[in-house]
Amino acid sequence: xxxxxxxxxxxxxxxxxxxxxxxxxxxxxxxxxxxxxxxxxxxxxxxxxxxxxxxxxxxxxxxxxxxxxxxxxxxxxxxxxxxxxxxxxxxxxxxxxxxxxxxxxxxxxxxxxxxxxxxxxxxxxxxxxxxxxxxxxxxxxxxxxxxxxxxxxxxxxxxxxxxxxxxxxxxxxxxxxxxxxxxxxxxxxxxxxxxxxxxxxxxxxxxxxxxxxxxxxxxxxxxxxxxxxxxxxxxxxxxxxxxxxxxxxxxxxxxxxxxxxxxxxxxxxxxxxxxxxxxxxxxxxxxxxxxxxxxxxxxxxxxxxxxxxxxxxxxxxxxxxxxxxxxxxxxxxxxxxxxxxxxxxxxxxxxxxxxxxxxxxxxxxxxxxxxxxxxxxxxxxxxxxxxxxxxxxxxxxxxxxxxxxxxxxxxxxxxxxxxxxxxxxxxxxxxxxxxxxxxxxxxxxxxxxxxxxxxxxxxxxxxxxxxxxxxxxxxxxxxxxxxxxxxxxxxxxxxxxxxxxxxxxxxxxxxxxxxxxxxxxxxxxxxxxxxxxxxxxxxxxxxxxxxxxxxxxxxxxxxxxxxxxxxxxxxxxxxxxxxxxxxxxxxxxxxxxxxxxxxxxxxxxxxxxxxxxxxx
Length: 616
Ligand SMILES: CCCCCCC/C=C/C(=O)SCCNC(=O)CCNC(=O)[C@H](O)C(C)(C)COP(=O)(O)OP(=O)(O)OC[C@H]1O[C@@H](n2cnc3c(N)ncnc32)[C@H](O)[C@@H]1OP(=O)(O)O
Ligand SMILES: Cc1cc2nc3c(=O)[nH]c(=O)nc-3n(C[C@H](O)[C@H](O)[C@H](O)COP(=O)(O)OP(=O)(O)OC[C@H]3O[C@@H](n4cnc5c(N)ncnc54)[C@H](O)[C@@H]3O)c2cc1C
What we know:
Belongs to the acyl-CoA oxidase family. It is found in: Peroxisome. Residues 432-611 form the Acyl-CoA oxidase C-terminal domain. Pfam families: ACOX, ACOX_C_alpha1, Acyl-CoA_ox_N. FAD binds at residues 141, 180. The chain is mainly α. Among the domains are: 149-234, Beta Barrel (Butyryl-CoA Dehydrogenase, subunit A, domain 2), CATH 2.40.110.10; 428-563, Butyryl-CoA Dehydrogenase, subunit A, domain 3, CATH 1.20.140.10. 59% of the residues lie in helices and 5% in strands. The chain is built from 24 helices and eight strands. Strands 1-2-6 form a three-stranded antiparallel sheet, with no helix packed on it. Strands 3-5-4 form a three-stranded antiparallel sheet, with no helix packed on it. Strand 1 (155-159) and strand 2 (164-168) form a beta hairpin. Helix 13 crosses helix 14 and helix 14 (433-462) crosses helix 15 (465-471). The longest helix has 36 residues, at 287-322. The protein is globular, with a radius of gyration of 26 Å. Ligand LOHRUJSQ binds next to helix 6, helix 8, helix 10 and helix 13.
């Protein structure tokens, strides 16, 4: 199909090599080539062809996705793929923006086995689980409790005579609920999205399991029922850490899809007139459309950068723990918690803004933006609800303030809390990314000190830490968000500095995005900067001008920056986001193909005719 002339023109501009940026995003040219190969292995294989999942009922969708997910597993085994990113490429190429039914098996069943099973148990369960010879799920949440793990009611009573645990869900609120991939007892019913996963319920009534079913690499129960505590009790929470550490990159992936769709479509869509008689401009030429989408484009790059960094950090900590070193578990936990919470929340807001920016066609499943949204938004609840996780990060920051007072060294990701910040010169409208980072770190430091003063006062008054925290949860959450933004901006600036050395033209365009991210974050909290006397009104006015100026620099690069995400049309599965920009013809073709247009529903005659007979 010929290229839409608008997109063709967009692709003639730009100041950087798109392919080189794709290689950077993938982690190198070889990884890009391998990704292309794996995508083609899926796209050319007829087993992955099937009905458009956007037209399917819940039951049909589950069946079709299970069929495809099994084919993904077979293809992954056939190609002997064990790299997580490569396996994800095969999965994403097949799933059409859905979550596959066996996802929980790999992310929530295999991972804890890897982390907490001893060698014997690994042989017995981990090896067959990795081969899908046994399928598992993660049944932690109950009807009555999800966030508050210490409130879970399920019982596991040890029967010393039979060396067994007797499992019971003694109350209705104890029923295991939301269990993804739980095909045992029942499905919890239709959901907002996640239609590909059969989230189930599980009632346990004197279910007996052998003593050695308790994963024994950390804690264990001896034959006489004695419980041997793990060296570090918190490692038991580690099974939730793995998914949380991966979800920032999942957020970046989903936001990258949404901005690709919205920016390409905004170049194809012409609407209204700026100068009468001079034709309808591309909607991306409106400053308001740029204000919706360019901060999100910058955010997608920022989230990808910090998502890759988080996964590397987590993998290093897990290797340390496997060797018995737990000193970085706390930092890993609060980084994963804060990044998972902030990134997934801002991503689902961003996907919605992308949908809105496509007008009516964004609301159609033809755009796939609703599909991407409803499947992504679960990530702000699943694997740790947003506020719950931010509170974890906030409590850690309160401890950092005490550590600072006591002269205890801080973890690297919070070292800036021990720095002094000063800004004397007036900001003009070309503030560099390092100065923006310093400002964001300054705000986080001041906010942490401010919140800590309230918590301390409350602690003095009540002597109860939980009460003190509970009274100030709103500002504790904001404090955790401020710190997480400092982590994100630091990762982005560090990566862009590195790229400026290796590939100046790519680095330069990314530094513009980094400035957009930083300026947007500062303007979103301008009151704090005035209150802490770090910025004056003139500074804020100047960086507002800077933001609009940055939009003019990014405008000619925008399509190339989303092309660099390199989503194959079959992976993006969006008519608005097609690489060739041939939207209208394909929208009409897609609509005509809808089953709703295929068979005469018969309902018209059945009901409307009655009205006519009723002599209106
Ligand atoms: C492609 C997308 C796929 C997505 C699939 C999604 C599938 C979804 C699966 C699920 O949803 S599984 C269920 C997830 N459930 C949760 O996340 C529950 C959230 N709640 C908790 O984690 C805990 O209740 C809590 C909020 C952490 C509270 O724990 P607790 O009541 O024990 O009190 P605290 O004092 O806060 O914590 C004790 C101690 O432990 C440290 N800690 C807590 N969590 C972790 C962890 N994950 N890793 C390491 N350390 C942890 C915490 O910092 C405290 O340390 P100290 O302060 O005592 O030093
Ligand atoms: C798509 C999806 C898939 C899932 N898959 C699984 C799975 O496979 N296995 C599994 O075990 N679970 C699963 N879950 C459950 C998930 O882990 C829980 O929903 C999540 O942990 C939130 O707990 P909750 O539902 O009890 O919400 P609640 O904790 O009841 O939250 C309700 C509200 O109360 C607030 N709140 C709660 N506690 C506090 C507090 N201490 N301070 C301040 N505010 C508070 C929360 O912020 C929230 O606004 C899944 C959930 C979803 C949506």
